[in-house]
Amino acid sequence: MKSVSKISCLLAVALSLAAGATLRAENPIPDEYRTGGFAIGCQAYSFNHYSVFEAIEKTAATGSKVIEFYPGQKLSLEEPNVKFDHDASAETIEKVQAQLAKFHVKPVNYGVVGIPKDEAAARKIFEFAKKLGLWGVTTESVESIDTIEKMVKEYDIHVGFHDHPKQPRNANYKMWDPNYVLSVVKDRDARIGSCADTGHWLTSNLDPVECLRILKGRIMSSHMKDRNVMGEPGHFDVPYGTGVGKIKEILDELKSQGFQGNISVEYEYHWETSVPEIAQCIGFVRGYGAAGH
Fold this sequence. Notes:
- Helices cover about 40% and strands about 15% of the residues.
- The chain is an alpha/beta fold.
- It is globular and about 45 Å long.
């Protein structure tokens, strides 16, 4: 009887774990969209001088397989007055999906976007993310954490809290500090964490690898940048591996953490002609994987 009871107990535990796994399915990014072992592509903001349609085409031209959208970019040259965001019509979304299919690019993230406390308003963002099949949403809306957690559980969409640089004249801005981000997310659903903007950490004079270690297990996505210098003033983006951004070490750390989210190249320099430099960034990660790191 004891043996039967023990087996029943173990079976109950196994069923409970299986049910939990079903409830917390991670909506993984398929391997076919990974480069060098990572789901790396472009943040459409790199092409903010262009339309969404052009951003998708340019993303493909860099060798990227995934893209992260941001709210408010004009749709196309033909429809410059139509903006693409979570308020987009079904027709507009279908047009974007057709362009994505044409260039074999998968959307994986959306942000940085404000997420309201109001559930109905927040749900519009998550419905949009679900419709596009996104891995995650990027925000800085700490004040909406309770609503965000509810939406994450309901939609199985990851949320990463993004960091902009430290603001010397605004002590209330704390997102630059990985310890603060950790304090916000550590007791929340496992799908809530950091969108690690490594370039902004550099601007704040923080070591990006140490920041990743502080947030271990809570990295949902990254805006990964290499920079010519650390801190202000005069910083600008450079191709991966040519600056002070510790890109190889960052990739090593993400790999050691079992990171499964997306990496966006958010290249904020040479706005009109950045495709070759972004392609170098993608090539660096492709080479990283080919070298067996």
